[in-house]
Amino acid sequence: MLSDFSKKINEIWQELPGLFTRLIAALGVLLLGIIVIKLGRRLIKKSFQLYRSKHPTAGRGDTVQTLLMSVFNVAMYVAISLTCLSTLGVDVKSLLTVAGVGGVAIAFGCQTLVKDIVSGMFLWIEGTCNVGDVVTVAGQTGRIESVALRTTTLRATNGAVYVIPNGEIRTVVNMTSDYRCAVVDITVAHGSDYEKALGVLHEAMVKVRDELDFLDEVPVIDGFISMDRGAATCRIECRCSVDKCWELERIIRLRALEALAEANIKP
Predict the structure, then answer these.
(1) What is the reported pTM?
(2) Which of 85, 202, 225, 239 qualifies as a FRET site for 44, CA 20 to 30 Å off?
């Protein structure tokens, strides 16, 4: 009994140099992999910085960058893990064979993950939304910060960050596509001269057009669109660039209220 134990100790002792060597080699592979990942990330960032310097308005470049970064990270992590296991003496081929046999079972358990990844690829291919766009998806509104393989990250106006699985994105409301329409509703109290109110508002909108350099047309007075017990509602619309929409709405609202007050018309 004692002799068997001694033999095992001797075998382990003899294997220690080889095990130590494999462990050092695996650590070397891991360190090299970390360096390659950092260099790869830096190269991707530099490449897209150069691209953005030549195409400053191309939001799709940012989308491709985040997606490419995600794919690169996953590929490198898998490659480093398999190489480390192989260096430690693990039969990677047998491991992959077992993984292939159990792949069907794993696929059933990872349907949501696969769905998220496939949806993310289609989002990128179709160009539905890009990094920098202001969108409403899955009931949340915000500016897209990144589009990864599995998730899309939004940042709301209050600073909150929403990480949405791509598989949950059914309908995309993109508010930064080509142009937007500033829409402002102004109420006019019952008993006022409605025709006069419309004329006052039109004159105010002409002044708004002259005041703003980025505006080429006079905001359109749609007329009264609804009413309640206290007032009638007049709608003003104007097409503008995406980044100027909210500013234009504030200015239209302010100038309309100032004009009505000057004409002694109660809003």
Answers:
(1) 0.50
(2) 85
